[in-house]
Amino acid sequence: MSMHHSRLPVRLTAAPLLTAAAVLALAGPASAHVSVSSPDAAREGYGKVVFRVPTESDTADTTKLVVTLPADTPFLHLTAQPKPGWKVSMQEGTLPEPVEVDGTEITEAVRTVTWTAEGDGIAPGEFDEFALSGGPFPDADLVRFAAEQTYDDGEVVDWDQVQQGDEEPEKPAPTLTLLAASADAHGSGGHGAGADTDEASSASDDQGGSDTWSRVLSAAALAVAALALLGVVRQDRRRA
After folding, report:
1. If DSSP codes are grouped into helix, strand and coil, which group holds residue 129?
2. Rounded to whole angstroms, what are the CA distances from 132 to 83, 142, 185, 187, 203?
3. Rounded CA separation 236/121 (Å)
């Protein structure tokens, strides 16, 4: 009897453990990249951009980060969040050609933002985050940056490779996916805010319906799993 009961937890837990191990194995290499994300960056709007910088080196600290901003979609307004232990500076420059941003033609913009450690920097096995706020973002699916990471042993790593096809490059450029334009952004650009509100309401309804079906399917899956577990327990008891 004890043999049957001892096998039951193994059958139930082996698959989740293997799945978790596979996820961790796949997530490992990607987590070492310099990446960019945002909680609110949307097309034609303003938002916060966060660069996550891990130290890949086993022996050296990250002491400087230089982010190069896109020249074809420059930011009209840009500010850097103060960061204890780091000095931040912005370098303006002339654009390759004039660009119209939010109804204004600009020929100069912030080209690079540099964070320099005033202490030890980011130690091996650790990461840190560096934030900017600005806009407006372009009416596009994504914004691609370039990053230069410097270690205290002199090594410099350029994160600027553009992905071609399905295979990710060794040093991918930090790429930010933008959210859909908000009603406020459309209104300021001369578009109809009412249509945007209707679209948002429709999207909300669709999302609500999707959530309801998700809950129903989840409940059904739990019920099936419970019945299957009960059947296994009863079968083990009969064998005992």
Report:
1. strand
2. 11, 16, 19, 25, 30
3. 59
**Per-residue confidence at 21, pLDDT binned at 50, 70, 90?**
very low
Q: Could you count the other beta carbons within 10 Å of the beta carbon of residue 50?
A: 17
Q: 186 near 50, Cβ under 8 Å? A: no
φ/ψ region of 175 (left if φ > 0, alpha if ψ in -120 to 50, else beta) reads: beta
pLDDT band at 182 (very low <50, low <70, confident <90, very high): confident
**Structure token digits, residue 51:** 């660069």
**Phi then psi dihedrals of residue 181, to 5 deg:** -60, 140
Q: In angstroms, rounded to a whole number, what is the distance separating the alpha carbons of residues 33 and 69?
A: 18
Q: Of the spans 17-21, 56-60, 216-220, which averages the highest pLDDT? A: 56-60
- What does DSSP assign to residue 138? P
**What is the C-alpha separation between 172 and 169, in angstroms, rounded?**
5
Which 8-state DSSP code applies to residue 167? B
- Residue where the block lists tokens 């419970």: 226
Query: CB of 44 within 8 A of CB of 59?
Result: no
Residue 76 CB neighbours (<10 A):
16
Give mean pLDDT, residues 57-85: 96
From residue 199, alpha-carbon distances to 84, 113, 205 in Å are 43, 37, 10
Tell the burial category of 95 from Cβ atoms under 10 Å away from its Cβ (0-12, 13-18, 19+). middle
SS3 239: helix
